[in-house]
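Project outcomes to date are best conveyed with an example. Our students and postdoctoral researchers have been running inverse folding experiments weekly, and each run begins with a structure described purely in tokens. The record below, which covers 415 residues, was selected by the lab manager from last quarter's runs and is presented without edits.
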């Protein structure tokens, strides 16, 4: 009996486990998943909880219940991987051996990496919504916040769901308008990027939406520290942005055990082949979802499309064959724009988001790079799809590789 060990029971790890359990012979492969607890979170819901769209209980299910019943789930903190010995050691000293290893432990916000961020103001005037706990705390804060200077800040890229900070800005604008207090809130979007939208065609589609909503943009802002006494962000070029309420997206990093194990880069991400997700160091290790360093968005859709390709490659790899399927970095994402509308983008490694129809040319029903009510409904409906189709590893009626069908290819310019 050979052992496939999967570290991480989140989106990528659960999908991979459930799909492979149906493909691998029961009498030949044992699949085991390891995670620290039993709480599987629907992370896209964290964006909505501060505004009351979702309750905390609506974004959490038992890992055990969403994982195939024939797959053992081991609870424990991971201390390190011993790749040369093909073993994993847990914090309590338990050792788990493997023939093949999948690392799918994602990334987490690391406010400890920014000087001054974890001060006495953390959880008071400084908040985040990229964790369950942070989103719940921010919901309580916004419930009775009287207004003032609201700053939304991205510390550094890459981050999970790169458009979520923009979505938060748009939803916050709408939230304060509904409460009749938008005139009491001064909003500033602070980004390390040269603009809020860096893809030219997408930027044109969004137009002056931030200006129209009265949201100022502070670009090229490389955060040096959070001055908790002044309540200000301070950049390396000595610019300062004052705040009364800071909603920050801290540096996102992979799990510390990855670098302790000699498998990670400076962000604790596993360097892999971007087409197959096989470790560049060990042919017995794959890294999936947010845990790897591929140049694609760290988003649930990437994990979904990536794993559809990965399972075919995995079956070839363990049979000693060349992996013939190549993941193209396909991602799509609904972008909430406020007022009950959203945009949809679809792109990959080589092609930026383009306008058109998705997933069927000329029919849609979704519109790309266009604000519609249907796109907003699609974003909300995705929660059901996530729990009932995506995580169980069932087939989705959309191609894993990006299709150019229905897109305005005439807008593509060659360098």
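After processing, the design step wrote out the following sequence:
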């Amino acid at each position: 009996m050979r052992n496939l060990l999967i570290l991480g029971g989140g989106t990528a790890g659960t999908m991979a486990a459930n799909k492979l359990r149906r493909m691998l012979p029961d009498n030949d492969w044992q699949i085991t998943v390891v995670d620290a607890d039993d709480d599987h979170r629907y992370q896209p819901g964290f964006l909505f909880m501060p505004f009351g769209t979702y309750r905390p209980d609506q974004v959490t299910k038992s890992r055990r219940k969403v994982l195939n019943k024939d797959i053992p789930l081991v609870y424990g903190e991971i201390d390190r991987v011993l790749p040369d010995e093909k073993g994993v050691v847990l914090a309590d000293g338990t050792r788990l051996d493997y023939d093949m290893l999948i690392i799918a432990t994602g990334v987490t916000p690391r406010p400890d990496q920014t000087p001054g961020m974890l001060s006495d103001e953390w959880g008071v005037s400084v908040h985040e919504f990229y964790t369950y706990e942070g989103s719940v705390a921010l919901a309580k804060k916004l419930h009775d916040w009287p207004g003032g200077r609201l700053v939304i800040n991205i510390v550094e890229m890459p981050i999970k769901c790169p458009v979520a900070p923009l979505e938060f800005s748009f939803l916050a604008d709408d939230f304060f308008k509904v409460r009749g207090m938008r005139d009491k809130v001064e909003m500033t979007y602070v980004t390390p990027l040269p603009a809020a939208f860096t893809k030219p065609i997408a930027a044109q589609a969004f137009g002056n939406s931030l200006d129209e909503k009265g949201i100022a943009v502070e670009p090229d802002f490389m955060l040096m520290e959070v001055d908790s006494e002044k309540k200000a962000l301070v950049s390396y070029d000595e610019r300062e942005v004052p705040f009364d309420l800071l909603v920050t997206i801290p540096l996102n990093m992979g799990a510390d055990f990855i670098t302790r194990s000699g498998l990670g880069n400076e962000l604790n991400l596993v360097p892999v082949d971007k087409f197959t997700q096989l470790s560049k160091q060990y042919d017995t290790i794959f890294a999936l979802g947010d845990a790897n360093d591929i140049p694609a968005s760290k988003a649930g859709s990437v994990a979904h499309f990536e794993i559809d390709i990965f399972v075919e490659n995995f079956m070839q790899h363990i049979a000693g064959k060349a992996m013939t399927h190549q993941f193209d970095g396909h991602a799509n994402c609904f972008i909430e724009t406020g007022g009950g509308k959203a945009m949809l983008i679809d792109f990959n490694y080589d092609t930026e988001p383009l306008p058109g129809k998705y997933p069927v040319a000329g029919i849609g029903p979704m519109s790309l790079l266009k604000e519609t009510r249907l796109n907003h409904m699609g974003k909300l409906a995705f929660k059901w799809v996530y729990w009932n189709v995506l995580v169980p590893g069932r087939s989705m009626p959309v191609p894993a590789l990006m299709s150019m069908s229905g897109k305005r290819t005439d807008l593509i310019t060659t360098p």
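The chain has three domains: 2-49+59-108+253-318, 109-251, 331-411. Residues 300-318 form the longest helix (19 residues). The training component of this project remains on track.
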